[in-house]
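Sharing in case it's useful to others searching the archive later.

Someone asked me privately for the predicted structure of Leucine rich repeat containing 73, so I'm posting the question and my answer publicly. Question first, with the sequence:
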Amino acid sequence: MLPGSIQITGEALSGAEIKDICDSLKENSVRLLSVRGCQLSDRDFGRVCRGVAESHSLAQLNLNLGVVSTIGRTKQLADALKANRSLQTLFLHGSPLLDAGLVTLNGALSTHPSLVSLDLGDCMLGDEAVRLICGMLPPDGAKSGLKELTLSANPAVSTQGWARLAIAVAHSSQLRVLNLDYNPLGDHIAGMLAVAVASSRTLEVLDLEGTGLTNQSAQVFLDMVENYPTSLRVLVLAENDISPELQQQISDLLSEGEEEEDKDGEARGRSVPPREKPAWVPHSITASKRLGQKGSTEIDITHALFRRDHFYL
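And my answer, the predicted structure tokens:
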């Protein structure tokens, strides 16, 4: 029997529904819990957090679109994460955390033994939050760290904050996916990120969609992938002032690098599995569009298929 999932979107949750969710969490029958965009009372949010704290099966928790709406709820979530040991993926996209919220969550996030994927897009974060996030990207394998990080649509971060992140990315021993879409980065910050990508031994996907880049940035990335070895496999440059020709050149070179890596692996007598390239969709756009649809509920505790998008086993 596969662990189940509970997925509810954009609904006002009753006390009875919350009880069912909490019972399932305590019974360790839930691997994925998503209540994105749902409305629930502070009391009920606390009940859910206690269920998360007690669960040994929960691997993915989606609280996107304003579920964590106050500092009080942020503290309750932090307490739950300190007790939980199973969670691997946490979505908080569209939560008004601010830097103060990240300060509250930092202790739980940075010491969690299993967390590898974190979505903090559109959370109104600034430089202090980025400084704390950099601590979740350790430079050696002795400490567990994030494999996937989303910081989309956090325009309050300054050039200094992004520079700090670029340094952490360059030295991270585990980060594989970095989503920075819909931040006003510009060519200067993109240049810093290009240096970080060239230095990184692990980064495979970089999403810079809608970040105010021009052909100047694209040329830097083109020179990098053309002349230097890199782990990068996907670079998203859509919705920027970059010519389609430059984008295609970069994409072709990255694809060639992947093919060469596969051939090298076969030549050494080992099988290299095909790399799955994610179909990137701007979170800041799709979240609001999906929520615009009528609220929906999908609850199947026993036979639900576990979705692996944005999730690393």
